Amino acid sequence: MLNVQPSRNKPTLLNDLIEQSNTDVAFFVETWLRPTGDEVTVSDLTPQTYTKVSFPRVNGRGGGIPITHEKALNVTCSIFSFKTFECCECKITNKGHNLSFVCLYRPPPNTKNKFTVKDFVAEFQNLLETYAIKKSWPIILGDFNFQSDKSDNLDVIRIQEVLTTYRLKQIVAVPTHNKSHILDWIITEDEEIIKDLQETDKIVSDHFVVTLQLDIQKPPP
Predict the structure, then answer these.
(1) Ranges under pLDDT 70 in the chain
(2) H or E segment to which residue 77 belongs
(3) What top-level branch of life does the organism fall under (predicted)?
């Protein structure tokens, strides 16, 4: 997982990052890719043995969530429609077992978008409620633009209270940004499924690369 900021001038760097890390699924946010005109960039950042799904921001510049995954994986992706954040779901099917990820990018509120934390909390709860009803939780990851290292921050407290209500936990405990804050979160109901969680500074953007290994069986190539 990585906030790219933006990706148009980094396709080779991102391509190499995916291959060198031998990742199965890569989630990027804030790529600034356009709905049309950046097809070459999307292709260039995708290694030959991988395939990609891209959800660019439709209105205005910035944002965007592309997903790159190994072709051997059976992955289905779909987009959610929320006002205060961009969000997509990816379902991985392996031998009758399903694993879901939700990748999220929350733009910081400003005078132009007029987003508020209150509105985000309400929409985020709506997202969580859809999975609470299904009784099947995805791994939620992305750039939340909340500094979870500031445990006394009122906005962080509000989000943590929401997670606690649904028995979810944000598990990233080290800085993911060059300003020494934890902006990129991984939220899960089951910590035991995650074997290894790391962050590394690959100098791709002002965010660090966050990687995790899951305790599940990978299908053969």
Answers:
(1) 6-8, 202-203, 216-221
(2) strand 74-79
(3) Eukaryota
Q: Give every CB contact of residue 115 below 8 A, 6+ residues apart in sequence.
A: 83, 84, 107, 109
| Domain of residue 153, CATH code | 3.60.10.10
Q: Is residue 160, in this structure, part of any structural domain at all?
A: yes
CB atoms within 10 A of CB 108: 10
Q: Is 204 helix (H, G, I), strand (E, B) or coil?
A: coil
The answer to whether residue 219 is domain-embedded is: no
Domain span holding position 127: 2-214
pLDDT tens, position by position, 79-99: 999 999 999 999 998 777 789
| Total tally of structural domains belonging to the chain | 1
- pTM of the model as a whole: 0.92
Q: Are strands 25-29 and 97-105 parallel, antiparallel or unpaired?
A: unpaired
Alpha helices by DSSP H, 135-189: 154-165
